[in-house]
């Protein structure tokens, strides 16, 4: 397990990470989400040791991470860092050689990864001649070339078409299934929602929520319910403590607490046949809005967008 414990960091006197603590488990895909400037890249760079924290620790399996243990880390930076004019396969072999593999093994690894990422036919082409999406696949191959134990990827899915997302996802899933920690940042909530097992939400340099995807959906956001009845269900509108999202003839989509929702169901059953009653869990974007909306206004820094503020009570919740 990779753990960050009370990591703080300032740039030129401005604190951008405030006691950042979270964990990413082996065998799971952990999505790290937050708006622009929330602190994702800074956190990842500290985890990798390319940037120092002002305070706090990063541990892997309970042991503070050292330069020696970071050799087993793989990183795909946001500012993609390969050589544009170098041939793709040659570049990957070169990186494998830097990790200590002999020429034969380096070439084998490069070819296997190119095949895995559907890029075998582009191995002899210079990187810059590939489309941006394919260049990104090469970046992912570069991060994986030494079969890392901890894989950290900054926005790996941005700019990929749906087919490429699936290819990259299956590669990352395989890596996780082999026991690696896989942590990836993203601001595409719909993509993260579909792809990750666990989630860490950061805003204005503070962890706002973390946990399993389903657990967070259970815990956050107002539960919605869909009621479909044979007869008109317009009466739901008049039930106290019910907020209607959509209503048409026999179908109502409403928000309510669990008890009120049960009362609605009972009343609907008394009135006639109930064709469907479904609790709907909030989507990740709704959770994100929910945690951002609970921001403590006293923490507002006028220079940052609203979604990037902090909240004391969310911090307490995360600390539980
Ligand atoms: N080298 C730097 N010097 C000064 N401030 C910086 C530096 N790097 C980042 N920051 C600031 O730190 C904060 C966090 O930035 P960071 O890049 O970690 O966020 P992010 O969540 O990765 O954002 P994005 O999704 O836009 O890439 C921002 O306010 C940013 O302006």
UniProtKB/TrEMBL annotation:
Membrane topology: Peripheral membrane protein
Keyword check for Nucleotide-binding: yes
Compositionally biased residues, Basic and acidic residues: 303-320
A GO BP annotation: response to antibiotic
Position of the signal peptide: none
InterPro entries from the UniProt entry: AAA+_ATPase (IPR003593), ABC_transporter-like_ATP-bd (IPR003439), ABC_transporter-like_CS (IPR017871), ABC_transporter_ATP-binding (IPR050763), DrrA1/2-like_C (IPR025302), P-loop_NTPase (IPR027417)
Keywords: Antibiotic resistance, ATP-binding, Nucleotide-binding, Transport
PROSITE patterns: ABC_TRANSPORTER_1 (PS00211), ABC_TRANSPORTER_2 (PS50893)
TM stretches of this protein: none
Key word Transcription present: no
Annotated Gene3D superfamilies: P-loop containing nucleotide triphosphate hydrolases
Family label: Belongs to the ABC transporter superfamily.
Name of the protein in its database record: ABC-2 type transport system ATP-binding protein
Provenance organism: Nesterenkonia xinjiangensis
